[in-house]
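Write out the bound-state structure for iron/sulfur cluster.
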Amino acid sequence: MSNTATFVGMPPFPVAAKKALANSQLRSNIRNATHTIRAKRARVCAELDDFEELRQAAADIKDDMLGNMVRYLEQAEESLTAAGATVHWARDAAEANRIVVDIARSHKVDEVVKVKSMATQEIELNAALEAAGIAAWETDLAELIVQLGNDLPSHILVPAIHRNRSEVREIFMREMGKVGKPAEADLSDEPAELAGAARRHLREKFLRAKVAVSGGNFLVAETGTLVVVESEGNGRMCLTLPEVLISVVGIEKVVPTWTDLEVFLQLLPRSATGERMNPYTSTWTGVTPGDGPQEVHVVLIDNGRTKVLADEVGRQALRCIRCSACMNVCPVYERTGGHAYGSVYPGPIGAILTPMLRGVGVDKQTDSLPFASSLCGACYEVCPVQINIPEVLIHLRGKVVDSHRGGVPGTLQATMTGASWTLGRGGRLALLQTLAGLGGRVLGRGGLIGRLPAPLSRWTDARDLPAPPRESFRHWWTRTDGGRRDTGPHPVTPGQGRGKK
Ligand code: SF4
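---
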């Protein structure tokens, strides 16, 4: 069994968010988890006097890499090959999946163990392996919970953040026995016991598997060294026990040197889990005779990244080191959870990265993502590589609107065309203001309008609208000569629009 649940066919964000908002258990699980991680992150980041300088250095290193990506990738390929690894290049998800499946088949295996990896989720590798008759076993605890529950991940770092421990216990009790060592009959929902059950369940798979699949947090170009940071040690088991290792890595993961890597190894654990250092930081450089996997493949995937690189505003999203800090502070993510974003990349980074990888104007779900934000800027403040997410969101909103120009105008376009026509002439605006004042008197109660007809009802269904003032500023200015003349109360609306004495 592998996790074949898919985000394909998810509804647009507003529809999915409305459903998620009705789930108070989900909101409570996510609030508790994000607030805990958020507080830990703030504490350990505050310990560093040069935290802002580190952020700047990280952004600069990534920008240098993005500006010279071809050179660094070629250098990485050369280093990897010299170290005994085989490098494969994949244009898209289909090509990457085909490469991994072919390698696994060449070793005649019917299962692989996996290290947690966003890249392999992005290309839906598990489904491709399953279609080829090869089971992919997730070994990260949270990924295991998601896989056993036939669920979808809802957070980059903590994919099962939407589950509480009693739900996890119930999944383990129900599912573990179907695919391997079952959970003990007296398993409680204590975190240590749950982790123990997962460890026992996974151990036989680690010891049996001949092929492992990983991602990579970084790829150091100067030596061809891959780096995986993790908390549980399951990654270390996958990277050392099997005979064959296949690492699927996005082309933006390359960093020029080990000195550059040092900057990220300070920022990533602090921003991700609120730790000074990850419990396990594994590095490997090709093949070491007699030690670890004796056949190492590295699949470098584009899958839309060069398209993102071509976007001058949006390319900063490729600096992302997948720390999740932006989603832990996002007021929208905190209330809707990750599934509403319909992608393996949820939260603020997902709202910009997913539309750029998939392309805007292709489907409603993707086009809804840049609007899934209040633009409060909290994500930008915490991002360790200084991605200006609000700037990219606004840029993408413009692209979404542009992609729908022509044809039958939608509500937004019709509203903007109407606004443009009205604001184009002072007389039209004055007429509208007079009508709005009259309308406000008819519809408003106590200064608020509680209900409007469609399509404006989409606003008043959720909140009251302040009634327009009965006298416009323009009218008041004319009537009182800019406040220099007291003409008494407004003739139509007693008590309003009184000028200065
Ligand atoms: S956008 Fe920044 S804060 Fe969000 S996951 Fe990426 S690196 Fe972390």
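---
Residues 271, 320-326, 349, 382-385, 387 surround iron/sulfur cluster (CB under 6 Å).
The first strand starts at residue 86 and ends at 90.
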